[in-house]
Structure formats: C-alpha cells, structure tokens
Specification:
Oligomer: single chain
Strand content: under 5%
Helix content: over 70%
Shape: globular
Distance between the termini: 28 Å
Structural class: mainly alpha
Number of strands: 0
Length: about 70
C-alpha cells in the first residue's frame, strides 16, 4: 500500500478502537466517518457522520463531511 493508504488504515484502526471504547464520543464518530469516507466506505461512513452531527450540530467539519458524502 501507499503511504497515504497505510496512514488511513492506521487512522481507521485507531478511531475504531476509540469508537469501541466510547461509542457516543462525537469527535471519534466524526473522524472515523471521515476516514471511512476517504477510503471509499461511504455506506459505513454516512451513519457515523449523521450521529456525529446529531450529537453536535455546530460541528461544521462533520456537517461538511456529511454533505460531501451524501452528494
């Protein structure tokens, strides 16, 4: 894998572990959703990003990521 794909894989592992430990942690949900979207796992990313936005509707980055993947 390329450096970028291995970085995304590492980030995904870390955020999955964070999500396992704190399933309602807004930033972890948002970051896991963003990483999954970048890796092309849109169907898995959307519900995580929706939940992140629901937990913190003022988080513009999560809202932007959600809008981007829902196009």
């Amino acid at each position: 894998p390329t450096r970028r794909s291995s970085d995304l894989e590492e980030a995904e592992r870390a955020f999955r572990e964070g999500h396992r430990i704190g399933p309602a942690h807004q930033k972890c949900l948002a970051q896991l959703g963003a990483v999954l979207a970048r890796r092309g796992a849109i169907d898995e990313a959307i519900p995580l990003l929706k939940r992140a936005v629901a937990l913190d509707p003022s988080d513009e980055q999560s809202l932007g990521n959600l809008n981007m993947v829902c196009r």
